[in-house]
Design brief:
CATH class: Mainly Beta
Low-confidence stretches: 5-10, 21-30, 188-195
Distance between the termini: 38 Å
Strand content: over 45%
Strand order of the largest sheet: 1-2-3-4-5-6-7-8-9-10-11-12-13-14-15-16
Number of strands: 16
Helix content: under 10%
CATH architecture: Beta Barrel
Oligomer: single chain
Radius of gyration: 21 Å
Shape: globular
């Protein structure tokens, strides 16, 4: 195991050296200094529009008339260096492709405040987390089977009302975009729209609170429903959503059509944003309540109804050059709890630190570390808790192109009995277009 760990560290150092040779970075207003390691679980639109800009320039099109298309491709390879289930696969890999189109009704010459959106998703992968024996999941890309899927991921209409203070979205949506989204950047001011993604960690708890595993629609199981966002002032919001609840019965809602059969997932959230101190350090926090009504079938157990709550937040701790760039340090935190007797995880706490642009000549890079601790359902697992640590370095190679090595450590994986401590390395590439 020691040899494998040293080999993985050697690969990381070589990637860092290569990236430093490729480019001497300067910060750009039209690129990101940190992105989510899984845009499909965070962003309504996946890419940055580079492909559209390139094609329109070649075709001498100056007005997009409100039509925008973006996309992303993510691929990774995982090395299980120690631990895991008996006879586990040492090497696994994943590939995710996204393509979306949005139509702005006002720019198309119709009514104000309307937006249509659709997105397709193609995933091909391996049971990465299952091989490692983890309940929480150290890699967010693979979810429930089937692990080879093509689906209509999003199909929705959003209308802005009352001078853009109320937003209504209906259709097939991804609720984790709107609720418990700790990664979402914090808006700043008119000149600089937002700070980078709060973290580039790849583990699953960052993207969906483990106390909602199996009931909350999200990546890659979107669901039909409605979301209302109320934003009366810049630093406070309230949101409510109701969605079909079939996911709690094991239905892969991302692969199915609309099916309102009397079970629903309801969720409400409110949050505030702020600036601290003379350097205007941005922060935000949110709290939410959710309810899954009807039948819940998870882990070969069944029950009716479950309720829970969650808390999340992030805070910029320090700027190296206040007002000039994003270099500095941020932190985030998460908490969740539920009253279910059948869901895998009953309580969760997590958090992490992110370091932006602190390596010499690498102002667009970021690195971070995080920890996730879950209390397990004793009707399902023999262990009381599962703890996971992860560290990563996100290299900005070129505009819209990132490479991210990550190292994960799970002292006592809980998906089996007496599984040895697990070390796993991941090398992920993210291409936005």
């Amino acid at each position: 195991m020691i040899k494998k760990l040293f080999l993985f560290i050697f690969i990381l150092l070589n990637f860092a050296a290569y990236a430093d040779i490729v480019s001497s970075q300067t910060e750009s207003s039209d690129d990101f200094s940190s992105i989510s390691s899984n845009p499909a679980a965070v962003n309504v639109t996946a890419g940055n529009g580079n492909l559209q800009s390139f094609l329109f320039k070649k075709m001498h099109i100056k007005n997009d008339h409100g039509i925008r298309f973006t996309g992303a491709w993510l691929g990774d390879t995982n090395a299980l260096m120690s631990g895991g289930i008996p006879n586990a696969q040492t090497w696994t890999s994943d590939s995710l492709f996204l393509f979306d189109v949005t139509l702005n009704t006002e720019k198309l010459g119709a009514w104000r405040g309307g937006l249509f959106g659709t997105q397709i998703l193609q995933f091909n992968g391996d049971p990465v987390n299952e091989q490692a024996g983890t309940v929480q999941g150290y890699n967010s890309l693979p979810g429930a089977p089937p692990l080879n899927r093509f689906e209509l991921y999003q199909l929705w209409y959003r209308q802005a009302l009352f001078n853009d203070k109320l937003f209504l979205r209906v259709g097939k949506t991804v609720p984790v975009f709107q609720f418990d989204n700790v990664i979402k950047p914090v808006p700043l001011n008119e000149n600089k729209i937002e700070i980078p993604a709060v973290s580039g960690l790849i583990f699953t708890p960052l993207f969906v609170n483990p106390t909602m595993y199996g009931v909350m629609p999200g990546y890659y199981n979107s669901a039909y429903g409605a979301t209302v966002n109320y934003v009366p002032i810049k630093n406070w919001y309230a949101s409510y959503g109701i969605y079909e609840g079939d996911l709690a019965q094991g239905v892969q809602t991302g692969l199915t059509g609309m099916n309102f059969n009397g079970t629903y997932f309801n969720i409400g959230e409110t949050g505030v944003e702020w600036m601290l101190g003379k350097n205007n350090l941005p922060g935000r926090t949110g709290i939410g309540l959710w309810d899954q009504d009807g039948l819940i079938q998870i882990n070969n157990l069944s029950a009716n109804n479950a309720t829970g709550f969650y808390l999340f937040g992030s805070q910029r701790l320090w700027y190296q050059d206040p007002g000039d760039n994003d270099r500095g340090i941020s932190m985030f935190y998460q908490f969740g709890s539920n009253n279910s007797n059948v869901m895998s995880i009953t309580r969760y706490i997590g958090g992490g630190l992110t370091f932006f642009g602190l390596m010499p000549h690498r102002v667009m890079d970021s690195m971070g570390l995080g920890a996730a601790l879950s209390w397990l359902n004793q009707n399902v697992y023999t262990q009381n808790t599962e703890l996971m640590f992860q560290a990563y370095y996100q290299l900005h190679i070129a505009k819209g192109f990132f490479v991210e090595p990550a190292l994960s450590y799970i002292p006592h994986p809980a998906a089996g009995i007496n599984i040895d401590p697990t070390w796993a390395g991941t090398l992920r590439a993210v291409v936005l277009f």
